[in-house]
Write a structure and sequence with these properties.
By secondary structure, the chain is an alpha+beta fold. It folds into two domains: 80 residues, no CATH class; 95 residues, no CATH class. The protein is built from six helices and four strands, in the order ββββαααααα. Strands 1-4-3-2 form a four-stranded antiparallel sheet. The longest helix has 30 residues.
Length: 210
């Protein structure tokens, strides 16, 4: 992933996109002030982290033949602003809490970024935790209530993110064609229902305690 100072006729202000290859994906988001954030997600047998000298050349090779402006975005990014991050998730835990201590966010339910829900679920955790502690008479009781409100939904999104990532980055050309064709012709109401199931999470609490 990286951040670049970038303008291009194929990238008008405010446009964000994600393109799928065979075993890899490229996405781009505007940051404002002429900058763009981008990521190139690829299957690798040897995950590595941080700034790796020469990795920009490898990314440009991987992006060869992709549509505009994918290569141009990578090429315009300074080497030291390209960061390598491995993506992992974990099976759901039986419990997040013990006595007066609990987990939230990635500590409780790390998920791959395929659905863009990692930080979103951490925010929902914070709201549910505050609401539960406000309603409970004891801390331990509030933490258990927090688990009951959040564990099922968060675990479901972890599984969905994993499945989506596996499908979107399959290295089978036949499965790529089937998946992209199915996605292209998916009815809009079904897409909206799927999005609502992801972002329609926690109800706003009816009251707050200071």
């Amino acid at each position: 992933m990286g951040v670049a100072e970038f303008t291009h006729d194929h990238l008008p202000p405010g446009l964000a996109f994600e393109s799928w290859g065979v075993g890899d994906r490229f996405g781009c988001r505007p940051c404002g002030q002429g900058r763009v954030y981008w990521y190139f997600s690829a299957n690798r047998p040897d995950p590595f982290e941080g700034v790796v000298p020469g990795h920009k050349v490898d990314l440009l090779k991987r992006a060869r033949g992709w549509h505009n402006p994918v290569q141009a975005i990578i090429d315009s990014t300074e080497e030291e602003r390209i960061l390598n991050v491995s993506s992992f998730d974990r099976r759901a835990m039986a419990s997040w809490s013990g006595d007066r201590v609990t987990l939230a966010g990635d500590a409780a339910h790390p998920m791959s970024p395929s659905l863009g829900q990692g930080a979103c679920q951490a925010i929902e955790d914070a709201l549910a935790l505050a609401q539960s502690l406000a309603e409970a008479s004891e801390v331990a009781e509030g933490l258990k209530l927090y688990e009951q409100r959040r564990m099922k939904r968060a675990s479901r999104l972890v599984r969905q993110a994993r499945r989506f990532g596996v499908l979107a980055q399959t290295e089978s050309r036949l499965l790529c064609w089937l998946w992209k064709t199915m996605t292209k012709w998916m009815p809009l109401p079904l897409v909206i229902r799927q999005l609502e199931s992801q972002i329609g999470g926690l109800k706003q609490p009816s009251r707050w305690s200071p």
